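Summary of Year 1 activities. Much of the first year was spent building the evaluation harness for sequence design. The harness presents a backbone, in tokenized form, and records the residue chosen at every position. We chose the following record to illustrate the format because it has been used consistently in internal testing since the harness was completed.
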């Protein structure tokens, strides 16, 4: 048994380096709905929730877990890296999955009702339960590092320029 925290044992890169593999890239868009509101307050990571029908559509292609990719909001041509938690919401007794996107950028306003567009580029890890909130926060910080590393690879970086993310242009 190692004394290292589990996060340090996870790889800093996931997926193929030179190729985005199916079912990615997966394009999703929808107007942001209200989640439970814990994301920003408790975790320190604001999350924007995609509508139920978008999660249902995504569930045809994606495994549950933590994913990464690019995001844009409300026809703004700026594109940001994102990490997304796609999982079963216990509140709905495993009938519905929710897609909750954390954009790696500090915004002053919230996005409720604004159109969120994402391109999911790959899978980072399965969802887990944690002994403490701090352990979850550590893991999310590590997810963000993995996402930034992975998105810097040319095949993944190129997705940032997809016209889907720049609808106003
Ligand atoms: C990148 C990322 C990874 C996450 N990983 C997990 C996880 O492994 N296990 C878990 O219980 N919650 C995880 N969460 C937290 C929840 O899925 C959710 O985002 C949080 O509870 C806020 O929900 P709310 O917006 O409905 O309030 C993760 C969130 C993010 C942004």
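For this record, the design step produced the sequence shown next.
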């Amino acid at each position: 048994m190692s004394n290292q925290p589990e996060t340090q044992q996870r790889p800093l890169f996931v997926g193929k380096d030179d190729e985005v593999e199916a079912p990615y890239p997966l394009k999703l868009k929808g107007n942001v709905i209200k989640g439970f509101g814990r994301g920003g307050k408790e975790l320190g990571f604001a999350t924007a929730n995609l509508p139920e029908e978008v999660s249902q559509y995504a569930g045809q292609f994606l495994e549950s877990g933590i994913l990464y990719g690019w995001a844009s909001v409300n026809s703004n041509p700026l594109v940001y890296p994102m990490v997304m938690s796609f999982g079963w919401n216990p509140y709905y007794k495993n009938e519905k999955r929710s897609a909750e996107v954390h954009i790696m950028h500090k915004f002053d306003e919230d996005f409720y009702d604004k159109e969120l567009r994402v391109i999911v580029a790959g899978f980072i890890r399965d969802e887990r339960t944690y002994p403490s909130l701090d352990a979850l926060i550590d893991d999310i910080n590590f997810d963000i590092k993995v996402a930034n590393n992975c998105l810097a690879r040319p095949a993944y970086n190129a997705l940032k320029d997809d016209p889907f993310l720049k609808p106003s242009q």
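The longest strand covers residues 115-125. Quantitative recovery figures across the full test set are reported in Table 2.
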